[in-house]
Queue: 4 jobs
Job 1
Amino acid sequence: MKCRGLLLLAALAFAGCIRAPEIVMVDRATALEEQASGSFKEVEQRLARAGMNPTPVPLTPNQLEELGIQPTPLVENIGKTQADRVDELLRRHCVGEGRDGLLVVTRRQCQAGRMSADDVALVERVNRARLHLWQWMRTVRPDVSEESVRKSWQQVHAEGVICGGWVESNDGTWGEKKC
């Protein structure tokens, strides 16, 4: 029994030295957990910056044409003459051959883009050149009236107008030239 008492006494003595470990609750992740989960701070900042910087919206050439903007040509129009440009405007119905022999700007019927300031200036130059031509023709044949000179010239010129070009008929309506 003595042994038993000694054991009991030893157990009680050691019980005072043995305690349960202190438990600490932490509301943050440990350093190892933070490393494992990764940090997205840099990615979040780049995403926020990208959202603040507006960038252009890519449009196809067809969408640009629908908006009335002609895309820049891939090849420069170095070899185009003024007559080629007028033919293009006639084909697009931006300009029409009037029955009086002058070019008429017909913007409302214009297809595939708009007329630029250069196009308007070209039409004015062509009309001025035609007026000068008719004036010169009158000096060569002074006995012919101006109206007759214009009509004669216009009939001959109408044959050379590009197929599909916008022309005014004798009754004042506009339509494409049939070939």
Job 2
Amino acid sequence: MATIKKRENGKWQAKIRRKGYPVQSKTFVTKSEAAKWARDIESDMDKSTFKSTSLAEQKKMSDALEDYWIEELTEKKSAKTIRCMINRLKLVFDGLSLLDVTV
């Protein structure tokens, strides 16, 4: 069951605690938005289709590109070319989290 509380700043926070899942929490401008989000997340949990996005919100795209470079690409024949491409991509995605990037 979700808990929806009004915060001191006037916004609404929805928090979901369910066994087997990490605590989910998000803040909204209106109470109805918070309730809808909570219903959607709980529905996904009921259907076992829920995937937490907390790590994607925290990790920056530039850090993910750097990790991918280190883990997968340093031994490739075209490492120099790939490194240049990754550096350019890091400039394009500067400041964005993984969750901010879409297709």
Job 3
Amino acid sequence: MDIAPITLPAPSRHDQLMAKAEELEATFLAEMLAHSGLGEMQGAFGGGQGEAQFSSFLRQEQAKLIVQQGGMGLAELIFNAMMEAENGTD
């Protein structure tokens, strides 16, 4: 008895571009969170060097969650610009 491997359909170009646009929005949001100082602990409750080393991972995940919940609309604008550029309509 042969078992066929499970194959998933390749994502469409639309899905690929939207994923990249959302990734870019998440990266932008992570940088904005870093510059805002959100989540930085001061004094005796600070995590020291360990916290400083890994805080970027936390901010990136927080930014991804923000984008999944609708973000700030930047991904849609980026997606539309990429679609226009790909279709050659300026």
Job 4
Amino acid sequence: MENRLHTAYQGVSGAVIERNRVLRNTYMLLGLSMLPTVAGALVGVQTKFWMLFAGSPIMAPLLFLAGAFGFMWAIGKNRDSGLGVGLLLAFTFFMGLMLSVSLSAALRFSNGGTLIAMAAGGTGIIFASLATLATVTKKDFSFMGKFLFIGLVLLFAASIANIFFAIPALSLTISAIAVLLFSAYILYDISQIVNGGETNYVIATLQLYLDIYNVFVHLLNLLMAFGGERD
């Protein structure tokens, strides 16, 4: 009986150590992924990357979707190797490049720098708060998965439709819902790591990166719509 209890304790202890390792590696890789994101954004802003799509605005979302899904597929295929990490960092550079389109739009406002800083600060507060909640409480939020996925599908469909209709009110609605949805995804994804639902730190990093990226972009869109100041 004593041996069985000791073995069970070792099993539980080993599982906790493994989950902490995945969470630690995820946070480290997530922090590292911000460097190529910033580099890509700076390159995009300096080279006026957005001008490539000035004549055909629909090309930007199409390029984004093609590149994002291509990278995500490749990362998933190589999740257990060093190549997966390299692809993830290349992906974050690409995402930074695409982010420069939104940043350039913000910088055309006289208070653009302030709007970007506010969006970054707001995203940081949301992430820190929800990450702390999921980590400290260790509550299992896996029950949210089905509802979040349905919301994501509906949001994606609405976003695709608005590429063609370009309705300002719908754009603002999409951004407001996206901030709430991806904030909930932060809580869900960290909970998955803490409770052993996600054991691969490359995939965990990819999921959290996309959550943070989308919260920032849509928060910036809302700030530009309601707080942007023209010269």
